[in-house]
Design brief:
This protein is α/β, with parallel strands linked by helices and about 280 residues long. Helix 2 packs parallel to helix 4. The termini are far apart.
């Protein structure tokens, strides 16, 4: 009963976006599985728990890749290695971003909330560069508000805007920095709206940078864009039951084609989109 009850709570935390972001979902799930497997081992119950956690947010690939590694080497030590890699990734990504961005002043637009993308921005601030950030509200769940609070706590100049105002602010920024839930041959999978901002950046000749660790390389043949509850949309607009006859769709992610991406900042280095695609084609 301990396992079923705890697993249900873990799934709910991820499903409700209390735990959000592909990297954070993987870290949270691996920590849960470490406690779970210490009690239950790596048998049938482990597989059931792993499958349940992986299915909650099907678009994010980090947990999928971590579970693939864990299934090949079912040991608590494997979980520890994966957690260390994920925890260390932020620092390595931040260092690579700091080495790449040489100017003394930046105005940066970002979308949603990405711990890895924000690690780069914070590193720029700590190095003495003058940094200001424009963060989108990120409807329908307002995840950009978390970004705004985090930037304010880091004493970074922050402006929070509604999603549809990006075109208005685009001429005044230096670059866009976003995270990613997975990187596929089709492009960068990130929070819905990212593709529109990439197109706007291209129109205004602004650089568009993606930040993500290499466990986000997605070689899955089958791929699913997560469709979330319509209630997330209409609860902000009207009371339930007042939109009879209206179909509501709420995709959580979209795919930005690689032609709109300037560079990808990873824990291993700063790569071109063509390099990322070569990494995706490589099979060990």
């Amino acid at each position: 009963m301990w396992s079923a009850l705890s697993l249900s709570k873990a799934v709910k935390k991820i499903e409700s976006v209390e735990v959000q972001g592909a990297r954070q979902i993987a870290i949270y799930s691996l920590k849960f599985l470490r406690k779970f497997c210490k009690k239950k081992g790596f048998g049938k119950e482990f597989e059931q728990a792993a499958n349940a956690l992986e299915k909650v947010r099907p678009t994010a690939v980090v947990l999928h890749n971590c579970l693939g590694i864990l299934r090949k080497n079912k040991k608590l030590e494997t979980i520890d290695v994966l957690l260390e890699k994920l925890e260390r990734a932020d620092k390595d990504i931040a260092a690579n971003g700091l080495n790449f961005f040489k100017k003394k002043k930046y105005t940066i637009l970002t979308h949603c909330h990405s711990s890895e993308a924000l690690s780069v921005i914070k590193a720029l601030k700590r190095s003495g560069k003058k940094v200001s950030v424009i963060a989108t509200e990120t409807d329908p769940l307002g995840q950009g508000v978390k970004t705004a609070k985090e930037m304010a706590s880091a004493r970074i100049s922050i402006t929070l805007i509604i999603d549809s105002a990006v075109g208005y602010f685009m001429p005044n920024i230096d670059m866009v920095i976003v995270g990613t839930d997975s990187m596929r041959k089709e492009g960068v999978v990130n929070k819905i709206g990212t593709k529109l901002y990439a197109i706007a950046a291209k129109e205004h000749k602004k650089s568009f940078y993606v930040v993500g660790n290499t466990l986000k390389l997605d070689k899955r043949k089958e791929f699913e864009i997560e469709q979330r509850s319509a209630k997330e949309v209409y609860n902000e607009l009207v009371k339930p039951g007042q939109l009879k006859g209206v179909k509501i769709m709420n995709p959580a992610f979209d795919i930005t084609p690689w032609r709109f991406v300037s560079k990808v900042i990873t824990e291993q280095g700063v790569y071109s989109p063509s390099k990322i695609n070569r990494m995706l084609r490589h099979t060990k």
